[in-house]
Design brief:
Length: 237
């Protein structure tokens, strides 16, 4: 299905909803706000507004107490601690989640001049935060997308993923990093588990982030985030 900037999401989702996406967040503080998503289980929230939901991302102001991004461990420094396969750096190109019937190109998201994360510009666009490791490298690779944008978006069904579901990320080096879902967690934006999501790991990890919980029509944003945790289990050429 085409939309926005020509991005596409193919196939029916597990619940019959079709994926589409938009917008991201800030490193560390970033996922505490932004994005729109389903709560774990299924949407019982009031319908979101007709336009894109609020992505109020806290800017990094000069002198503001913004924590530094944790530096993911590298294979060279922690070879004795590494668990499972890992790959050298290579820019991700596409993402697919077979359980959701989802396939989409990956854009790159950096930081804007005001310190907020650059956001995808269309409902069906998914973005990799290029301040995180590339998928398959040691540490958490972070990928984000919206769940609603006047209707279902690319991560609309993200919260329905189960443990052991696969997420495939194709890289520029021709290899596909295959991740297994280890946990799907809904967290309050006010108590976002920064270290769990962005902290150093002893394996090649993946984090998929969107919003969830109740949509506050007065504030114009969702109360929670949905975070899918995954780890690299295989590599395909």
């Amino acid at each position: 299905m085409d939309g926005g900037k020509g991005r596409r999401v193919e196939g029916p989702t597990r619940s019959g909803a079709l994926g589409l996406a938009r917008r991201g967040w800030l490193p560390l503080v970033l996922a505490v706000t932004g994005m729109a998503a389903l709560a774990v289980g299924r949407a019982s929230d009031p319908a979101p507004p007709p336009g894109p939901p609020d992505t109020s991302l806290p800017a990094v102001r000069s002198g503001s107490p913004t924590p530094a991004a944790p530096r993911p461990r590298t294979a060279e420094r922690t070879a004795d601690l590494l668990r499972g396969p890992h790959l050298p750096a290579s820019t991700p190109v596409t993402i697919s989640i077979p359980a959701l019937g989802l396939y989409a190109p990956l854009s790159q998201l950096g930081l804007a001049d005001d310190g907020t994360l650059e956001t995808p510009g269309a409902a069906d666009e998914v973005g990799w935060f290029n301040g995180s490791v590339t998928p398959g490298a040691v540490g958490p690779a972070v990928i984000v997308g919206h769940v609603t944008w006047g209707g279902p978006a690319v991560f609309y069904d993200l919260a329905t993923l189960d443990r052991s579901d696969r997420v495939l990320v194709r890289r520029q080096d021709g290899r596909t990093a295959i991740f297994a879902v280890t946990e799907v967690r809904r967290v309050s934006k006010a108590r976002f588990p920064t270290e769990d999501v962005y902290g150093a790991t002893d394996h090649a990890a993946l984090r998929l982030i969107t919003c969830g919980g109740r949509f506050d029509t007065a504030a114009g944003r969702y109360a929670d985030n949905v975070v899918v945790f995954g780890r690299l289990v295989a590599v395909r050429r």
